[in-house]
Fold this sequence. Notes:
The chain is about 40% helix and about 20% strand. The protein is built from 12 helices and 13 strands. Helix 8 (about 225-230) crosses helix 9 (about 235-260) and helix 9 (about 235-260) crosses helix 10 (about 275-290).
Amino acid sequence: MSNQWIAGVDLGGTTTKIAFISMDGDILHKWEIPTDHSNEGQYITSNIATSIMEKLEELGQSKTVLAGVGMGAPGPIDYETGVILNAVNLGWRDNFPLRDSLESVLSLPAAVENDANCAALGEMWQGAGNGAKNLVCVTLGTGVGGGVIANGNIVTGVNGAAGEIGHITTLPVGGAPCNCGKTGCLETIASATGIVRLAVEEMNKPNSKGELTDIFNRSKKITAKDVIDSARNGDPIAVKVLNEVAFHLGLALANIANTLNPEKIVLGGGVSKAGKILLDSVQDYFDKFAFPPVKNSTKLALATLGNDAGVLGAAWLIKNKLIG
């Protein structure tokens, strides 16, 4: 089995990332395919199977080289049954039997987990977690996802919805509406979408000026990257926005750490590419709000695997399932 490969799949609403990965966690081949969620997503797993078989043929390999397939998918998943409870962006009906569907089209052992949990497992196995068995991973992208690992195992909760860090309420009064139906969620502030919203609100105030406002006036839109780059250049609006993001993120992470006392909290996703300008500020607020023994033992770090975290974590699911 040590010479076999694992197929790791990171299923996204637009693109599906696939990789062949060794039992030691080395990525041997990786590629992407579009995610076709037409007709209630009925082609998703069959397209993945077809792509995997075509890639094996291209590489001159037979299916026997594969030990199994692991997948991370967006939405709460019952790990024991392999059922995805809901996936509004994929077209599947509620309680879709994802693992059974994968096993049916590939005739291989399969394991499925929430995509943010897979990213956490990937960082634990091969990334910034550096083998830490008690780890929290927070993905700051279009939304805010999270994965909690305790003693080397994903904490799933009673119905697979544990680790929804993006839906911690950080503004109990007057917060912006979130796609989940609540208001004031961390996701409305610390995501790329939230950062843009905060910046636009600031620029709509009277006498707004500066680098970020100039970008907005020229193109009639801005991105989170624009805000981050402008903050690096000292733009006052961008600096103010990033400080607000850091405040809410630092507060939420401190409360998570006070509850779990993980060895590491790893920040990933596109927003984390802000790097030191964001991490240092988050660290300051984390230190302010964390219980002192927690502050002294829980380390914040930036993710190192980038877009590979999800496929590596998905592969780890199979490695752990088959050989422990």
